[in-house]
Structures are given as structure tokens and as C-alpha cells.
From TrEMBL:
Keywords: Cell membrane, Chloride, Glycoprotein, Ion transport, Membrane, Phosphoprotein, Potassium, Potassium transport, Symport, Transmembrane, Transmembrane helix, Transport
Gene name, Swiss-Prot/TrEMBL: SLC12A7
Record-given protein name: Solute carrier family 12 member 7
Domain SLC12A transporter C-terminal as annotated: residue spans: 807-1063
Domain Amino acid permease/ SLC12A: 111-282, 405-675
Gene source species: Ursus americanus
Length: 1063
């Protein structure tokens, strides 16, 4: 659909979509209309029509919800002006509409001038001369050079990111979040927001300082009673006036950003005129230095307040009289009065405060002059006679330092004067060619401002540090031409405008973060007025800004915002370095003059400057960013922006997998890498969720966890169920806090699917070495014949794959992660040495809070002729070297006769097996006949018991089930009935089965006698028989072995698990 020719509409990147408004995703509204209406005027949502044709270069587009009115804060770029509502008469308010102008701004208006205005600010006018006077020529040049180099390297990285696609509103937050992910983006975005907010407080404090110090000192509300109280009174005045100014500015921003936009050019003009006035004054000083005298007593600077003549005596009309200065330092105005010792021994001289470029005073100021708080401001190179007792009496007109100075503090104060390089990238949507304008305009602005700062420092290198010596006048204003008021008024309006811009931009940055939804508790700040103005974000910004104003000291606020800006710049460099090193296919910036080494150097310089400015502020800023990062990682919404951190993780994972050897790991690196085999019900839900709880409790091994499941069928028929099952498993993994991977297989039968998982789960060297599964509880039921067959075959598969096997019996009785065992035992029955896996598992479980208070006991089985005492000592020494604390006990098992219970148990097992193999009965008949066999054996139990009381051995048992009888049975009548079972009653159990059952019953009795009340029992799991006909008997043996125990973990090692005693 194309717009009509007369409407002047232009086609954008998707009809009905504002490409420069970040809240309008393409294609979220249908703009269908009749053909006739399409030919007359463009269609709008809800059946609305544009009542008037739009001018050339404009377009109607819908916003998602609140609109994005005046997203940008300067008049050289407005996305969605207010008032563009599409409500029809009688229909109520409709969806807000964006009316935006086609981007027409070039490099100069769109990037260069905004950056220039943001960089040149309050620090240049109020603090540069002081920094140069304190730090000297060389160190001042080093400070300026470091800060400018930092911003230049950051601008190069930012140019590469900004030219790698469209950067909508959000500026640095958008670039970092889409390059490094939502965690870094949210953390650094909030830090950048806090930096911008504190910048507003700094600009407001600068405005008030200029007003109260240089424009109208008499306007101070709170007056100091003594000279010592002037500094405290000034801070209180800053708080009062600053709060009032903040409220006024917030009201202006709330009423409408259009007023701020209209004043933006005026504020910029003030900055340019002030800079030009300074340079004009510099040129004038070369041949006509200004007459600005500074009075010195010895080498100490004196304040001009309280006296006019810089001399001890004044000669007039052939008479010499003491001056007002004499009266300040002496106890009377008489020439014979007793004076201050330093005043008496030193001369009073007068020098020029601004001697000019050609005066040669540059060499005198090469080195720094750092002082403590309250020290005298002294001129280097001026003779002075020291006195034993330094005079600091109150009332003397000395100029004293009001703050302790050192190099790192000056770096923190100066750095805000080079910030503001993001102003152009924030307006990328309003530029005619953003990929050309952003690098060119930003870099040129940095070069220009760096030249201004360095040359400005050179101009004032001959100036004294404090304006107090110049009768309280602005030092850099005294340098300006034609009048100092040009600088005073220009700096006042410049700082006032910068404060307005900060209060306008910071809420919109917070609104962009809130609308991304990565920090849930900030979502309320994504809303505002109907036209999109961030009302709630403005309120929060004003409150945070007020905290900075209450600090009331420009020198204390500047290092705070330096931390936040430096952190933002550091991550911009990191983003560019990561993207460059990853070489991802989508990394194709048009700006070619970048390199990962430059970005890494810029990142390192930003980090170094953070700790140079203030190491404790740097740690606090990093702590804040780290907390925000972890909060977003833990609670934030899932966002997939194709960021570089995920790409870096993929590259690191690929590199690590290639380095991991495919062979068995070293014994010191062995750990359980678990494949958890889950069973699903008909609704694709997990049958035994406690199995994942057990997996989580074993996470102290820090190994790989793969959660696998099998769906029966074909993938084409079951792919929907497979997706649902995978979602259910992942959801349960999240609930149980199981960190691992989910792998679901659709197979024609469960047996093959489980075999495929055992063979193919994992990748490269990261493959599982242990399989964890649940015991088939209902395996004795006749309709679950295949369940125990699948189980036994899985045991064989793990043995063939040389993997360990863990089988949790009574898994539904295992504890959840929220439960706690106050006491109890974890008993390990170490019958067969399998490399130490039985020892390691309880140790890992006891690292979890569920099992932490449980004791570990190890039982080992010995024969009668074994040395039990020596076995116990050896086992204790072995555990000591393994660094595992546990109680050790040796249990002796005596060989005795086979009991009647063992005989009967074996007989029932074999009769049941033979009966089901020979007879083809219905389910009802099988149950009836099985009951009949049970009743028959129960009735004859007393007879069997009597026989077994006589001394006999298993060799004397008469075996009546012979091969001949089996052949004869094949030719008998096979019709079902009671007569077909009569011969089964005369069967005698197989001798080897009797012995196996005897061992299982005997061992079970011993375990029950010691571990009946244990919280968990770990047992060696014997392997399945080679002959598959004995699989059912194998299941029966395991059932008898674990009978009567609440929680059992059967462990079958592969022989490759070795728990080493070496470090």
C-alpha cells in the first residue's frame, strides 16, 4: 500500500511503523482499508482517517501505547511531537499517533553542536584555572591528556558500534545492552542514568555558585557571623537555592520539553560566545595584559577584602601613614604598634595576576603545589622569611585552601568536563546519514574541545589558583574580552541549560530501561503522561538529583558522576572489543578506523581512571553495577538480543570442548557427569520429580547434568508432545534448581530410546559417565512386563558403555530441596570395591543443606576367617587419605544353613517364572492360579520348616525338575486349568538360585539390623545375569536385597571411577 501523492507521505521501513520510535514494532497494527479510501487518504488504526493532508516529509504512524513524544531533547531532532492524537469526535480517545519529520540533519547540526554543548560546561569555567594553578603545567597537561585520550578511544569504539546498524533512542544503553546483553546493558544503563542525574545536580550547583559568588553575593540568605563560618554558610545557601532551582527546572521539563528545545540554541550560543571571548582575551594579553593586581605578603597571597592599598605604609603629601593592611596585622594603626611576626619580617609586594602569554611566567608554574586543607596559597619563586610560629589568626586576610588537593582528586573533578560524547549517538534516528555523521561529528567535537581545554589551560597557567585574590571575581572572566561579564553571564546560562538537558534526558533513559522490561520493579517508570512524557521517571530523577544538591559541594559531586560515566565508557569499549574479537557475521560497521587493541586500551584507561579518581567510589560503583547485574540475571525478564556476551560464551564453549580430551579424564578430574533418565506419564509430565531433587543435591560434584526422557512413537506424530514434554521438564528443572541440559528423544520403543540417550547424550569430551534412574516400583504387575525388561537392558547398556549406574529405590520418599534432616545417618554398605564411588556420593550429598547434618557410616562385610580389626584400621587410613570423615564398622557374616524362608522364597520365584512362561492364561486366570500357588505353599510351610531343621547342606537338596521331565511336559495337554499346574507344585528350586537368594536374604537381614532407621542406604548393585532368562530372578534378588529399607541408592560402578588420595 503506497500513500497518495497529494498527502506528501513517504514510505518507511514498514507501512504504519515509525522506524525512529523504539516503541513501535513493525507490523503490530493492520492498516487495511478500502481501495477507495486508500486512494484518498492513508488508513489509521481503528478505522480513523487523516482529516487533513500532511505536509511534505511527514508521515502518520501509530505508537504502541503511550507514544514517544519528543524523545530527543534538542530542536535539531524530534521524533514524535506531542498532540498527535487520532481521536474522532464522539468516539473518545484513540491510539496515539506519531507525526515525525523525515531526518534531514547533517553532521554539524545533528552531532557536532550537541556534543560541543554537552562537553563544554561548568568545570571549564569554574575549575580549570584552579586545577592548573594547583597541579602545575606538566601535571595539568597529563590530566587533560588522559581524560581526552579516554574519550577519544571511547568515541572510536562508539562509532564502530553506532555504525553497525540503526541505534534508536537510548544511546549508550541501547548500544551496550544489544552488544553485551540485558544484564550488562541494564547495569551500565542504570549507572549511566545515575551519572546523568548527578550531572544535573552538578550543573545546578555550578549555576548557584556562579550566581552567589560572581553575580549577586548579597543574595545569600544565610550569612556567616565569622570568617570561619563562611564556607558552611555558603553550603547552606547552595542547598536552599539549589533545591529551588531544581523544582523550577523540573516544572519546566514537566510542562513541556519543547521549551527546553527552544532554549537549546540559546544555551549553545552562550557557550560559543564565552569560548570566543576567552580566546579574544588571550590574543589581547599578548600585547596588552590586563591590569589585575594580586597582593602578596612574602610569598603568601592576600585577599583584597578589607584593604585597598597593597602596602604597609602609604605616602601622601610628604607624610607616611600606616595603611589598612597595617591595621589588620598590627594591634593598632600606630607605626610603633606590635605586629604579626610574619608581617613584620616580610615585604608586601604587588604582582599581575594575568601577566600575559609572553611574560615567561610559564616556567614558574611547571610543577605542582598540592596543599592540605587550610594551608596558605603561596606563589612559587617569591622570597619569603619563615617564622617559627605560623600565623593563622582569625581575621587576617590570607587566602587559604578550602580543600585538600592531590593529583587523583583533580582527575576526578576534571573528568566531567570531557563527558557528553554520547549526545550525537542518541540522535542517530534523526540524522540524514547516521553512519557517516556520528563518527565524524563526535570525533571532531572531541578534537575541538580537547584543543580548547589544553589551550585554555595554557592560557591560565600564569594565573593564581583562587579568585579570592582578585576580589572574589571569576578568574577566567578576568581574562575575557571585551568584558568579564560575558563569561559570567555566558557560563551562568550555559550551566543552567546543561542542567535542564540532564533533567530532560535522564528520565527518558530510565523510561527506555523500564520499557525494555529487564528490571521488573522499574516498570512503573515506563509510564507517564498520555503523550509519552516520563512523569514518574522525572519524579525519581528529581529526588536523586536532590541528594546531589544536598551534598552542596561541586568538588564532591564531580567524582561521583565521573565514576558512572567512566563505567559506561568502559563497557562501550568492552562491547566493541568483544564484537571485534568474536568476528560474528553481523559485525559489519561502516566505520573502519577501529581495532580491538584500541578498544581494550580505552577500557583499561577507563578502569584506571576510575581508581585514580577515587578507589572507594570506584568500588561502590562496581558494587552497584554488580548488584544490578545479578538482580537482572536472577529476576529480570528473558531477553534475546543476539548480544556479544552470548556469542562470547558460545566461542568459549566451543574452544573449551575442543580442548577437552575425548579419552577418560585424569583421576583428579573425575567427577560424576550425570544422565538422569526420567519417566513421563500420558500428559508428558514427570512421574518422579524427586529424582531431579536428588540430582540437585548431588550438584557439589560440579559436573555435567543431562536430563533425558523418551517418548514412544515417531517424531512427525509426536513433535508437539515432545515440545510440551521438554517445556515441562525445563519448568521442573527450574523449580528444583537443577542446572543442566534437557534432551528428549522420540523413538519407536522405550528400549531403543533409552539406549540412544546412553550412547549419544553429551558433546565431545563433555559426555556423561553416570546414569541415574528410578527403580521400577510396579515391576511385579503382570501388565508391566516390559518395564523391568527395559530396566535390566538399560543396566546392560551402561555396563557396555563403561558407565556408572545409580538406581534410586523408593524415589518418592526422597527429600525435596526445601526439607532438612536435623540428624540421621547415611549408611554405605561397601561390599565390593568399585573405585570409591560409594564413598564419594555421600560426601557430595552432605555438601547440600538437606543432608548436611547427617553422619556418614561405612559398613564393610568380612568372612569369619578375615582379620576384622586390621580391615577396620586399613579402611580408616584409606578414608583419612581421602579426606572423608566417616564412622567405620566391619560386619562379619557367618555361613550357615539355608533357611526355610530362603527355600520358600526361591521356590515361589521359580514357580512364578515357569508358570508364566508355559501357560497362556488370561489376566484373571493368572491372578487366580498365582493365588492358588501361594496358598498351597503357605499351607505346606510347616512341613518344609520341619525338614530344614535337620542338619543338611544345599548339596542334599533333591532336584526333581530334570531335563527329561521338561521334555515330557512339552507333549502334555496345554489347555489352561488347575490340572496344568499340579506338576508345578512338585518343583524343587534351582540350587544356584537358592544360594543367591540365601545371600540376598542374609545380607538384607544384616543391613536391616544396622540401617533400618538410616536416612539413606547406599548398596553395591550386582550385575545382571548373562542369560536373559534369569532377568526376572535378578529383579527378585534385588527386591529381596533392599526389602524393608526406606530410601536406597543402588550403585554399580564401571571400574573407571577412581577417587584419588592425591591433590
Amino acid at each position: 500500500m503506497s500513500p497518495p501523492p497529494h498527502s506528501g507521505l513517504t514510505r518507511s521501513s514498514g507501512w504504519g511503523h515509525c522506524p525512529y520510535c523504539p516503541l513501535c514494532p513493525p507490523g503490530h497494527r493492520s492498516l487495511s482499508a478500502s481501495r477507495r479510501e486508500q486512494e484518498t487518504r492513508p488508513a489509521l488504526p481503528g478505522g480513523l482517517r487523516v482529516s487533513q493532508p500532511l505536509g511534505a516529509g511527514h508521515q502518520w504512524t501509530p505508537c504502541c501505547s503511550w507514544g514517544m513524544a519528543a524523545w530527543h531533547v534538542y530542536p535539531w531532532g524530534v521524533c514524535c511531537p506531542r498532540g498527535a492524537w487520532g481521536g474522532a469526535a464522539g468516539r473518545g480517545p484513540q491510539e496515539p499517533l506519531c507525526l515525525f519529520q523525515s531526518p534531514r540533519m547533517g553532521t554539524f547540526i545533528g552531532v557536532y553542536l550537541p556534543c560541543l554543548q554537552n562537553i563544554l560546561g561548568v568545570i571549564l569555567f569554574l575549575r580549570l584555572t584552579w586545577i592548573v594553578g594547583v597541579a602545575g603545567v606538566l601535571e595539568s597537561f597529563l590530566i587533560v591528556s588522559m581524560c581526552c585520550t579516554c574519550t577519544m578511544l571511547t568515541a572510536i569504539s562508539m562509532s564502530a558500534i553506532a555504525t553497525n546498524g540503526v541505534v534508536p533512542a537510548g544511546g549508550s544503553y541501547y548500544m551496550i545492552s544489544r552488544s553485551l546483553g540485558p544484564e550488562f546493558g541494564g547495569a551500565v544503563g542504570l549507572c549511566f542514568y545515575l551519572g546523568t542525574t548527578f550531572a544535573g545536580a552538578m550543573y545546578i550547583l555550578g549555576t548557584i555558585e556562579i550566581f552567589l559568588t560572581y553575580i549577586s553575593p548579597s543574595a545569600a540568605i544565610i550569612q556567616a557571623e565569622t570568617a570561619e563560618g563562611e564556607a558552611a554558610a555558603m553550603l547552606h545557601n547552595m542547598r536552599v537555592y539549589g533545591t529551588c532551582t531544581l523544582v523550577l527546572m523540573a516544572m519546566v521539563v514537566f510542562v513541556g520539553v519543547k521549551y527546553v528545545n527552544k532554549l537549546a540554541l540559546v544555551f549553545l550560543a552562550c557557550v560559543v560566545l564565552s569560548i570566543l571571548a576567552i580566546y579574544a582575551g588571550v590574543v589581547k594579553t599578548a600585547f596588552d595584559p590586563p591590569d589585575i593586581p594580586v597582593c602578596l605578603l612574602g610569598n603568601r597571597t592576600l585577599s583584597r577584602r578589607g584593604f585597598d592599598i597593597c602596602a604597609k605604609f602609604h605616602t601622601a603629601n610628604n607624610s607616611t601613614t600606616p595603611t589598612a593592611l597595617w591595621g589588620l596585622f598590627c594591634n593598632s594603626s600606630m607605626p610603633s604598634a606590635t605586629c604579626d611576626e610574619y608581617f613584620a619580617q616580610n615585604n608586601v609586594t604587588e604582582i599581575q595576576g594575568i601577566p600575559g602569554v609572553a611574560s615567561g611566567v610559564l616556567l614558574d608554574n611547571l610543577w605542582s603545589a598540592y596543599t592540605d586543607k587550610g594551608a596558605f596559597v603561596e606563589r612559587k619563586g617569591t622570597p619569603s622569611v619563615p617564622v617559627p610560629e605560623e600565623s593563622r589568626a582569625s581575621g587576617l586576610p590570607y587566602v587559604l585552601t578550602d580543600i585538600m588537593t592531590y593529583f587523583t582528586m583533580l582527575v576526578g573533578i576534571y573528568f566531567p568536563s570531557v563527558t557528553g560524547i554520547m549526545a550525537g549517538s542518541n540522535r542517530s534516528g534523526d540524522l540524514r546519514d547516521a553512519q557517516k555523521s556520528i563518527p565524524t561529528g563526535t570525533i571532531l567535537a572531541i578534537v575541538t574541545t580537547s584543543f580548547i581545554c589544553i589551550l585554555g589551560g595554557a592560557e591560565v597557567w600564569g594565573v593564581q589558583a583562587f579568585g579570592e585574590a582578585l576580589q572574589g571575581k571569576l578568574v577566567i572572566g578576568m581574562l575575557a574580552w571585551p568584558s568579564p561579564w560575558v563569561i559570567v553571564i555566558g557560563s551562568f546560562f550555559s550551566t543552567c541549560g546543561a542542567g535542564l538537558q540532564s533533567l530532560t534526558g535522564a528520565p527518558r533513559l530510565l523510561q527506555a530501561i523500564a520499557r525494555d522490561g529487564i528490571i521488573p520493579f522499574l516498570q512503573v517508570f515506563g509510564h507517564g503522561k498520555a503523550n509519552g512524557e516520563p512523569t514518574w521517571a522525572l519524579l525519581l530523577t528529581a529526588l536523586i538529583c536532590e541528594t546531589g544538591i544536598l551534598i552542596a559541594s561541586l568538588d564532591s559531586v564531580a567524582p561521583i558522576l565521573s565514576m558512572f560515566f567512566l563505567m559506561c565508557y568502559m563497557f562501550v569499549n568492552l562491547a566493541c572489543a568483544v564484537q571485534t574479537l568474536l568476528r560474528t557475521p553481523n559485525w559489519r560497521p561502516r566505520f573502519r578506523y577501529y581495532h580491538w587493541a584500541l578498544s581494550f586500551l580505552g577500557m583499561s584507561l577507563c578502569l584506571a581512571l576510575m581508581f585514580i579518581c577515587s578507589w572507594y567510589y570506584a568500588l561502590v560503583a562496581m558494587l552497584i553495577a554488580g548488584c544490578i547485574y545479578k538482580y537482572i540475571e536472577y529476576r529480570g525478564a528473558e531477553k534475546e538480543w543476539g548480544d556479544g556476551i552470548r556469542g562470547l560464551s558460545l566461542n568459549a564453549a566451543r574452544y573449551a570442548l575442543l580442548r577437552v580430551e575425548h579419552g577418560p579424564p585424569h583421576t583428579k578430574n573425575w567427577r560424576p557427569q550425570v544422565l538422569v533418565m526420567l519417566n513421563l506419564d500420558e500428559e508428558q509430565r514427570v512421574k518422579h520429580p524427586r529424582l531431579l531433587s536428588l540430582t540437585t543435591q548431588l550438584k557439589a560434584g560440579k559436573g555435567l547434568t543431562i536430563v533425558g526422557a523418551v517418548l514412544e512413537g515417531t517424531y512427525l506424530d509426536k513433535h508437539v508432545e515432545a515440545q510440551r514434554a521438554e517445556e515441562n521438564i525445563r519448568s521442573l528443572m527450574g523449580v528444583e534448581k537443577t542446572k543442566g541440559f534437557c534432551q528428549l528423544v522420540v523413538s519407536s520403543n522405550l528400549r531403543d530410546g533409552m539406549s540412544h540417550l546412553i550412547q549419544s547424550a553429551g558433546l565431545g569430551g563433555m559426555k556423561h559417565n553416570t546414569v541415574l534412574m528410578a527403580w521400577p516400583e510396579s515391576w511385579k504387575q503382570e501388565d508391566n512386563t516390559f518395564s523391568w525388561k527395559n530396566f535390566v537392558e538399560t543396566v546392560r547398556d551402561t555396563t557396555a558403555a563403561q558407565q556408572a549406574l545409580l538406581v534410586a529405590k523408593n524415589v518418592d520418599l526422597f527429600p525435596q530441596n526445601q526439607e532438612r534432616f536435623g540428624d540421621g545417618d547415611i549408611d554405605v554398605w561397601w561390599v565390593v570395591h568399585d573405585g570409591g564411588l560409594l564413598m564419594l556420593l555421600p560426601f557430595l550429598l552432605r555438601q547440600h543443606k538437606v543432608w548436611r547434618k547427617c553422619r556418614m557410616r561405612i559398613f564393610t562385610v568380612a568372612q569369619v576367617d578375615d582379620n576384622s580389626i586390621q580391615m577396620k584400621k586399613d579402611l580408616q587410613v584409606f578414608l583419612y587419605h581421602l579426606r572423608i570423615s566417616a564412622e567405620v564398622e566391619v560386619v562379619e557374616m557367618v555361613e550357615n544353613d539355608i533357611s526355610a524362608f530362603t527355600y520358600e522364597k526361591t521356590l515361589m520365584m521359580e514357580q512364578r517364572s515357569q508358570m508364566l512362561k508355559q501357560m497362556q492364561l488370561s489376566k484373571t486366570e493368572r491372578e487366580r492360579e498365582a493365588q492358588l500357588i501361594h496358598d498351597r505353599n503357605t499351607a505346606s510351610h510347616s512341613v518344609v520348616a520341619t525338614r530344614t531343621q535337620a542338619p543338611s547342606t544345599p548339596d542334599k537338596v533333591q532336584m526333581t525338575w530334570t531335563k527329561e521331565k521338561l521334555i515330557a511336559e512339552k507333549y502334555k495337554n496345554k489347555e489352561p486349568g488347575v490340572s496344568g499346574f499340579k506338576d508345578l507344585f512338585s518343583l524343587k528350586p534351582n540350587q544356584s538360585n537358592v544360594r543367591r537368594m540365601h545371600t540376598a536374604v542374609k545380607l538384607n537381614g544384616v543391613v536391616l539390623s544396622r540401617s533400618r532407621g538410616a536416612q539413606l542406604v547406599l548398596l553395591n548393585m550386582p550385575g545382571p545375569p548373562r542369560n536373559r532368562q534369569g532377568d526376572e530372578n535378578y529383579m527378585e534378588f534385588l527386591e529381596v536385597l533392599t526389602e524393608g529399607l526406606n530410601r536406597v541408592l543402588l550403585v554399580r560402578g564401571s571400574g573407571r571411577e577412581v577417587v584419588t588420595i592425591y591433590s
